[in-house]
Amino acid sequence: MINKDFEDFFRYLNKNKVEYLVVGGYAHIYYTEPRYTKDLDILVNPTIENSKRVYKSLCDFFGVKKLKISQLHFTKKNKPGEFSVAIGNPPNSIEIFTNLPGIDFLKAWKNKQRFKYGKVFVWVIGINELEKNFKTVAKINKKLE
Description:
The chain is 41% helix and 19% strand. By secondary structure, it is α+β, with helices and mostly antiparallel strands.
């Protein structure tokens, strides 16, 4: 089932030429089978120009000219396991990351895959990078136990 808000958000990301990758549960769904996920996880390239494009996309999405965060907010790498910005409530929330354990954005960008979500095309992390991220997160979680 297509979430209209997610589809609109992707439309703004694409319109503003944001370098982003769908990661997490939704990426997993593209490669396997449907499953429940509480949010849409997006990894963005943490460059100055891309941060400005993410900011513009969020302004467009919310229909505002300015947000309470800086245009450069998305240049700061979030700590592993923490997101940079969260929008909405599960299961309709969007979490934007600037950093993921085990993932180098530029390498992942080279191996991205294009899939269709509703009426828009989206960039999804490559299967090898997705598996690497899942394994790295599992190792981190095991160490924390």
